[in-house]
Design brief:
With 102 residues, the chain is mainly alpha-helical. The chain is 68% helix and 0% strand. The relative contact order is 0.04.
Length: 102
Amino acid sequence: MAKSLSMDQLKQLAAHGARARVQELQAEIAVITRAFPGVAGSGKTHARRRRRRRAAAMPAAVSHGRRRGRRRGKLSAAGRAAISAAQKKRWAAIKRKKAASE
């Protein structure tokens, strides 16, 4: 007859299985890294940073399937005016080039 497991036993078995799977994946990563040495590198740190940032942006209470909007820095009026002037200058240069080619 099958014996039911306690919650602690179940958690221990799950943790053991997870550790075994992590070891398998690490071995697979090592094989891939050896096969393609030029590809290995910065991917790990970026993924970790991205995950950390995403986790910080989405508190547990808010993560009901809804994503929180990205917070943007405030731009001063002078900054907006500078960007506007630069963009107008670019557009004018494009118009001049277009007019000259016609």
